[in-house]
Specification:
296 residues, 4-stranded antiparallel sheet, Immunoglobulin-like
């Protein structure tokens, strides 16, 4: 009997959460602090855009922790926010039979993107930050490179690399100035940069894909997928890799040595094998070759 009672309580809680998720979505923006959401939203046509007010986000289930290793913050800070898995559970609405394929994409005002697969969310539990040391976004500290951390940013209760490919270790995705969250099908997002053909997991092309999917895809785009912050598309990267491999490799390892005003971070830790893998992967896109769309 007690087990049945607990089960009924769990069902009621789930129902309240679903209702809360639907009630926070608004068709019109009310202020600049509203979070824009889109993609696959529960109960709405694909590609619908809705808005969530800051106060409504505060009413959703909250996470609280002290961050000590967030690169966007100096020292330690008390963080309050909504876990990505909570947002996905309340708001995400993948088509029937594709729930396991749903991922979260955080889009920033400068078109940088954080891509949160189910594996990443399970390993690192990213949180959409609402308060830092009790302060709301307008009172957050400024990032080192200027601008604003808000209206929203992403942080982690902790981060430990979950994988390593050659000399590329799993990286924390902690974008700031987040203005939009999308719930997307992973097979569609990452499928855009899947290279044609079946490659062994230990092949240079497959290793390059695994690295580029996490790193390069945040700032470079393949069509409508990926970030556009860098202003250089996947096809352009592929052409550079094929036509001037030396310059391509040097740009990755030390961007400022190729272009003095480069904003791309250096990857001095990448060894020759890692650069070989990225070069081999991007060369498959030279001449305008698109991904197969077949997913991971």
């Amino acid at each position: 009997m007690r087990q049945v009672f607990v089960f009924l309580l769990a069902l009621m809680a789930m129902g309240h959460l679903r209702a809360a998720g639907q009630s926070v979505l608004h068709a019109e923006r009310s202020s600049a602090s509203d979070l824009e959401v889109g993609g696959e939203l529960k109960g709405l046509p694909t590609a619908t855009t809705r808005y969530i007010r800051y106060g409504d986000l505060l009413r959703l289930p909250q996470e609280s922790y002290t961050a000590s290793d967030d690169g966007n913050l100096k020292g330690t800070a008390k963080i309050q926010g909504v876990a990505m898995e909570t947002l996905e559970r309340l708001l995400g609405g993948a088509p029937a039979g594709t729930a396991d394929d749903l991922m979260v994409v955080a889009i920033c005002s400068d078109q940088y993107r954080g891509n949160y697969s189910r594996e990443y969310i399970a390993a690192h539990h990213p949180v959409l930050v609402l308060k830092i040391d009790g302060a709301e976004p307008e009172d957050w500290p400024a990032p080192e490179n200027g601008g604003r951390l808000g209206p929203y940013m992403v942080s982690h209760p902790f981060f430990r690399p979950a994988f390593k490919v050659l000399s590329h270790a799993d990286e924390a995705q902690v974008p700031f100035a987040v203005t939009r969250i999308e719930f997307r099908r992973e097979s569609q997002v990452f499928g855009a940069i899947r290279t044609p053909g079946d490659w062994a997991a230990d092949s240079a092309v497959a290793q390059g894909y695994a690295i580029a999917r996490q790193d390069c895809f945040r700032c470079h785009n393949m069509g409508v997928e990926g970030g556009t912050m860098a202003g250089k598309s996947w096809i352009e990267l592929g052409t550079m890799a094929a036509e001037d491999g030396k310059r391509f490799r040097q740009t990755i390892r030390s961007p400022a040595s190729v272009k003095a005003d480069a904003k791309m971070p250096a990857h001095a830790e990448y060894d020759d094998a890692t650069l070989d893998a990225l070069t081999a992967y991007f060369r498959t896109f030279a001449g305008g070759t698109a991904g197969t769309g077949r997913g991971r």
